[in-house]
Amino acid sequence: MEEQKPLKKNPLSMQLDLSKFSEETFKAATDEEKRQQDVMGESTTFFKDGMRKLFKNPLAVMSIVVIVLILLIITFAPMIVPYKYEEILSVNGVRDKGAKNLAPFKYSQLEQEYIDNGGSRFPHLFGTDEQCRDYFIRVVYGTRISFFIGFFASIIVLIIGMLYGSISGYLGGKVDLVMMRIVDIIYSLPDMLMIILLSVVLNEVLKFSSGSLLAKLGTNMVSLFIVFGLLYWVGMARLIRGQILSIKENEYILAAKSIGTKPGRIIRKHILPNCLSVIIISTALQIPSAIFTESFLSFVGIGVKAPMPSLGSLANAAREGLQSYPYKLIFPAIVICLIVLSLNLLGDGLRDAFDPKLKR
Amino acid sequence: MGKYIVKRILLAILTVFIICLITFFLMHAVPGGPFNKEKALSQATIEALNARYNLDKPVWQQFLLYMRNLFKGDFGVSLKNGREITKIIGEAFPISAKLGVSAMIVALFLGTVFGSTAALMRNKLPDRLIVFFSTLFTAVPSFILATLLLLLFCIKLKWVPVWDANSNNYVLPVIALSAYPMAYITRLSKTSMLDALSQDYIRTARAKGVSKFKMIFKHALRNSLIPVITYAGPQIAYIITGSMVIETIFTVGGLGSKFVTAITNRDYTMIMATTIFLATLMVIANLICDLLYKLVDPRIKYD
Predict the structure, then answer these.
(1) Which of A38-52, A235-249, B183-197 has the lowest mean pLDDT?
(2) Between these two residues, B152 and A90, which has the higher pLDDT value?
(3) Lowest-pLDDT choice from A89-103, A206-220, A248-262, B282-296
(4) In whole angstroms, how far apart are CA A360 and each of A160, A221, A248, B270?
(5) pTM score, two decimals?
(6) A104 near A125, Cβ under 8 Å?
(7) Helix (H, G, I), strand (E, B), or coil: what is residue A297?
(8) What Å distances lie between residue B215 and A152, B114, B196, B199, B201, CA to CA?
C-alpha cells in the first residue's frame, strides 16, 4: 500500500494532530504511575501513628535504647559472669579472705597467684564488697529485683485499678458514689507511712515455709506487693473511672446496648480499648515510682531479704565505707538514676505520642 | 464555700480517725507482747505489767483508752528506752520542722524562679539548661543525692563539717531534701507560666503598653502560681517521708531519723505514735492547701 501523505492541516481545524503523539501516550497507566498521583498518605492506625511519633522523639528513642541495654545486661550477665550474688569468693575451693573491698578490675593476692600460675579468673568489673562477693553481679541482681518489683507492682496496680474503676464508672449512680468515697479515703491516707507500717507488721505476721519462692523473695517483698495492691491502685481507679464516664456517653455504646450486649462485653470490647492509651501511659509512669518506693524501703531497712540485693539496699550498705570505697555507692546510684530517668522520659514520650488530647 | 469547708474538714477528721484505727489494729496484729524478753519474767510480773498498761482488757477498750490519751496529748511510752513519746516528739519535731520548712521554702521559691525563667526564655540556653537539670533531678532518689552530697562536700572537699550536735549546718540536708520538689515545681511552673503568657489578658496588657516587668509580675506570674499551690500539699508529704532518709544520712536528730530508728528497733509504740503524728500533719497540710487553692482561684467551683 502506498504510504499516505499527511494532509496539510487546515489552520482553523480543531482536530488534534495525532502524528505528533507516539503510541506510548495512549497506553494505560501502570499501577506505579497511578500511585504517583495519590496525594493521600498511607492509611494509618492509631497505634502506628503513635509509634511513628514516638520514634521521632529522640529522647524517647534514647531511653528505649538504654532500657533495652540494661535489660540485655541483666538477662545475660549472670550467664557470662561465673560468680553468684550470694557467693563468697574462693580460689580452688579455698576461701579467698583477701578479696574484701577490692577496687574495680583488681585481683586479690590469692587470685593474682592463681593467675600467675596460668589459671584464668573473670575480672571483678565493679570490684567486690565487704563480704568478698563480686559486686558487679550483685548490682545486676539488684537491678533485676528493681525491674521485677517495678513491673509486677504496676501490673497489680493496673489490674485492681482497672477492675474497680471500670465497674464504678460503668455502673454509676449510688454504687459509684460509695466506691468513690472509699477511694477518696484511701487516697487521703499518707501512702508512704502506711507502706512502712504495713511492711513492719506483715514482716512479723507472714511466715513462709522455707524453700518456697515466696520465702526466697522474703516477706518484705511480698508485703511490698500486698501494700501496692492495697493502696496504690486508687490513682489508676480514678483515672479509668473518669475515662469511662466520658466514653460511656458515646453513640456506639448506646448502639451496643440496644442490641442487647452484656455489660461485661461492652466494657471489654468497647470501653477499655478506647482508654487503652491512657492506661498504658500511666502504667509506664507507675514503674519508676514503684522502683523509687522499693529503693526507699530497702534504704530504711524494710526492703528485700538479706542475701538478695536490691539497688536501694546496695546504696544503703555502701554508706558504711563511703570514705574508702565510694564506687560502691556510685554504681547502684548510676543504675537507679538511669532506669528511673529513661522510664520517665519514655513515659513522657508515650504520653506525647498517644494521648489524643494533645494532638494538634 | 462554707459548706465546702465543713465537708473538707469532716473528711479530714474522718481520715485521721481511720489512720489511728488502722495504725492501732495493725500494731496489735503483731504477735508477741511488749514484755516478751529473752529473760523470762514470772507469770505474776507479766500479769501485773499487763494490768498496769491495760493490756488485759479487750482490744477495742484498749483502742478507746489509747484514743482518749491521744486527745490529752499522751502518746504513751517508748518500748525501747521507756521515755515518754510526747517528750521525744517535742524534742525532735522542731528540728525536723525547721529542716522541712526551709526545704519547702527553697523548693517553692527557686522552683518558681527557675520555671518562670525557663518559660520567659523559651528555647534559649537557660531554658535548655533548666529543663535538663529539672528532668535529671526528678530521677535521682533523695537518699542517693544526699549520700553523694555527703561524699563530695563533707568527705572529699571538706567544705561543710559532718553534722554533730554542736555545729549544725542545715545547708546540705536542705539541698538534698528540696532537690526533687524543686525540680518538680520548676517543670510545673514552666508549663503554667507558658499557659499564662498565651492568655488574652496578657495580649491586652501588652497592647495597652504595660511595661514588661509589670506584665510578668502582675499578670503572668500571679496566675501561673495557682497550680503550684495545688502541688504544695502532696509535696509536704514527700518532704516528711524524705526527711526520714535525709535525717538518717546526715545524722540529724529529727523526728524522721527517730522514726527510722524505731522501725529498725521494732519499737511498736514509737512507730504507732510517729505514724499517727506525721499522718495527721500531712492531712492538715493537705487540707490547708486545698482550702487555700479555692481561696486563691475564684474561678473554681465548689462541688
Answers:
(1) A38-52
(2) B152
(3) A206-220
(4) 33, 44, 24, 55
(5) 0.77
(6) yes
(7) helix
(8) 49, 18, 11, 12, 10
Q: Is B177:B242 a contact under the CB 8 Å cutoff? A: yes
Which grid coordinates are listed for A94? 579455698
Q: Backbone phi, then psi, for A128, in 5-degree steps? A: -130, 165
What b/e readout covers B245-280, taking b as 16+ CB neighbours within 10 angstroms?
bbbbbbebbbbbbbbbebbeeebbbbbbbbbbbbbb
Q: Beta-carbon neighbour count of residue A241 at 10 Å?
A: 22
Contact B136/A at CB under 8 A: yes
Is residue A281 within 8 Å of A350, Cβ to Cβ? Answer: yes
In eight-state DSSP terms, residue A356 is G
CB < 8 Å to B15, chain A: 185, 188-189
Question: Residue A94 and residue A110: Cα distance in Å, rounded?
Answer: 9
| Farthest-apart Cα atoms in chain B, separation | 88
> Which domains, from first to last, does chain A contain?
47-80+133-358 (1.10.3720.10)
For B92, list phi and psi in degrees, rounded to 5: -85, -30
Q: Which of A185, A200, A231, A289 to mutate to test the interface with B (most CBs of B within 10 A)?
A: A200
CA closest to B283 among chain A residues: A188
Nearest residue of chain A to residue B241 (CA atoms): A192
Contact A169, A241 (CB under 8 A): yes
Which residues in chain A are contacts of B19 at CB distance < 8 A? Answer: 189-190
Query: In sequence order, what E strands does chain A have?
Result: 90-91, 94-95
Dig out the grid coordinates for B180 from the structure.
526533687
Burial of A215 (C-beta count, 10 Å sphere; 0-12/13-18/19+): middle
The DSSP secondary-structure symbol of B84 reads B
